[in-house]
Specification:
single chain
Length: about 575
């Protein structure tokens, strides 16, 4: 397979907008710290898809899809169906639905372009953008660790933990995965373009040092995978293989050097704490507890699951005396999340399709064309990296990881051999291009609409964001509640600030399904009590007690006083979680 040596100028700027820029946005507006990062990734990928579909040759649409591509599209269709049939509030399912559809379109488009030998349409711009994002993110991390006073919140996010890089995504594990993606991109680009080994060594060294700055255990696993790639991949030039293996001792040296330098300057390297927790039997923080809780939820809802988007509500309302005290809206494991939300049968089919797609695509790893085989192996490493991360957290629930991962999946499956008998249906092939155009256009317009709606909610929390004189708080809340996508944040403000929450009882549903916290649960318990639903109020109070949050101390102080038995002190009725859904 041959491909142009250099990407067209038209697609690289789009890739920088859609892939690199989202990882580098430092500015934010409440209530979601990564809103701008995600909406730019979504809208940017929509623009990229639209421009590509409008400018690509019609013959691209006729490219036959491999079995691997079809299997992944089937898995995506099942996830879309599960999301459509969930009982969670519609507005909170709309954004995930849009992301799944766009991801499927990107994967299919990339597979078609790859099959036509046009890596310059998607793959080369993607890898270049990831490398740019990774190198600039190292600069961000260096400032956050060594010169935190220079972080201004506009170009560089404020560091939240001394001695630890968090990047502009504000999450060290996400930063480490980005840097390892960038390392893989650097290897692929350098080998393909026959770049200097010295330059590659410097770039990889900088990126691996950046991973050490995150003190991320996920990053450590990624560096091990990087070295393993070098040890096993005989299609790579031998000097490059040795270079990848050398990244592991370089990482260890960086870790030691950071510990010594920061200690000398009176700052504890965060990696010390991570190492101590791991050695003392806590390799996954409180994930073990949330995984155990999730497994119990799967056992209680094995066939249809709790519903996409309903995880936090069902978990918060289910008795778990040994639960982790933080509020979780995800199980931090993609396999468990699929099973608990969609049910074991759907999860099994989705995961089965994904594994079968990888199995069918394995031939791409051993094709005679060295460039194609190296590309397939680079894509596999990068998908494996984000897959391992997804077993510990949920990076694919962030648009700026999901959509590049879809392009990588399209690249890998596009390299898999295709049986041309029977030939693709001409009508179906002809319809692909309009579908790509419509999907890209809808993604672009949706990102703009979403931002307008988000602004109507952000002013509730930061009135100075208003274009004119800020309206009274009640008016800002009322306007924000009309937002389909983000109205749950306005509902949260309304119910938690209400003197009589029972009077706005219908507004509890959306925030409870988004993310229950102590303030929200206390308001909900008071509202239930005022409505005479004492048993439900007692159940909610019992769940609050399990979270052991200091904000609820005053609520339970009455239990230590003599006289009477307030509702929060009654025995836990242990109601089914579904019975706690707000109803008129």
């Amino acid at each position: 397979m041959t491909a142009p040596a250099h990407p067209p100028v038209s697609f690289l700027p789009l890739a920088l907008l859609a892939v690199a820029f989202p990882f580098l946005i430092a500015g934010s507006a409440p209530p979601t710290s990564t809103y701008f990062n995600q909406v730019v990734a979504f809208g940017g990928c929509g623009v990229w898809l639209l421009v590509w579909a409008l400018t690509a040759r019609p013959s691209l649409a006729a490219q036959p899809a491999s079995t691997s591509t079809k299997l992944l599209l089937l898995a995506g269709a099942l996830l879309v169906a599960a999301t459509l049939t969930s009982s969670a509030p519609w507005g909170q399912r709309l954004a995930p639905l849009a992301c799944l559809v766009l991801a499927g379109a990107l994967m299919h488009a990339t597979a078609a372009a790859t099959r036509a030998g046009r890596l310059s349409d998607w793959v080369t711009p993607l890898m270049t953008a990831l490398l740019v994002a990774g190198l600039l993110s190292v600069v961000v991390g260096v400032v956050q660790v060594f010169r935190p006073e220079l972080a201004d919140g506009r170009l560089i996010s404020f560091p939240t933990i001394a001695g630890r890089a968090i990047g502009n995504m504000r999450q060290p594990n996400q930063l480490s995965t980005l840097l390892l993606w960038a390392a893989a991109a650097a290897v692929w680009l350098a080998v393909r373009e026959r770049q200097s080994l010295k330059v590659l060594a410097v770039v990889l060294g900088v990126l691996v040092f950046g991973v050490a700055l995150t003190a991320s255990r996920t990053g450590l696993v990624g560096v091990l995978l990087l070295a393993l790639w070098g040890a096993l991949d005989r299609r790579l030039p031998k000097p490059v293989r040795w270079l990848l293996v050398a990244m592991l001792p370089l990482y260890a040296l960086s870790w030691w050097g950071l510990e010594q330098w920061l200690s000398a300057h009176g700052v504890m390297f965060y990696g010390e704490d991570q190492l101590k927790k791991t050695l003392h039997g806590d390799p996954s923080s409180s994930r073990g507890k949330i995984w155990a809780n999730t497994w119990d939820m799967i056992a209680a809802h094995p066939w249809t699951g709790v519903g996409v988007g309903a995880y936090n509500f069902i978990w918060s309302m289910t008795p778990f005396p040994g639960r982790p005290v933080a509020f979780y809206d995800h199980s931090h494991n993609i396999v468990l999340q699929l099973a608990v939300e969609s049910g074991v049968p759907v999860a099994a089919v989705v995961l089965g399709c994904a594994l079968a797609a990888l199995w069918r695509a394995r031939a791409a790893l051993t094709v005679a064309d060295d460039d194609a085989a190296r590309g397939a192996r680079a894509a596999l490493f990068m998908l494996t990296m984000v897959g391992v991360h997804s077993l510990l957290e949920y990076p694919l629930w962030y648009v700026y990881f999901l959509l590049p991962a879809a392009v990588l999946a399209g690249w890998l499956t596009g390299l898999a051999p295709v049986r041309l008998d029977p030939p693709p249906q001409s009508r179906f092939a002809a319809a692909r291009r309009p579908v790509w155009c419509v999907t890209g256009a809808v993604a672009l317009s949706g990102s703009l609409w979403s931002t307008v709606e988000y602004a109507s909610v952000a002013v509730i929390f930061e009135p100075e964001l208003s274009w004119a004189e800020p309206a009274p708080l009640a008016e800002r809340i009322a306007r924000g509640q009309r937002s389909v996508l983000w109205g749950h944040h306005a509902d949260y403000a309304s119910v938690t600030m209400a003197a009589k929450p029972e009077e706005v009882f219908s507004e509890f549903e959306r925030p409870l399904y988004h993310l229950a916290d102590t303030r929200l649960l206390m308001a909900y318990a008071r509202a239930l009590l005022a409505r005479g639903e004492i048993e439900k109020a007692t159940h909610v109070a019992a769940r609050l007690r399990e979270f052991r949050n200091p904000l609820s101390t005053e609520l339970f102080a009455a239990c230590d006083k003599e006289g009477g038995t307030p509702f929060q002190c009654l025995p836990d009725p242990g109601l089914p979680a579904e019975a706690l859904r707000p109803s008129p």
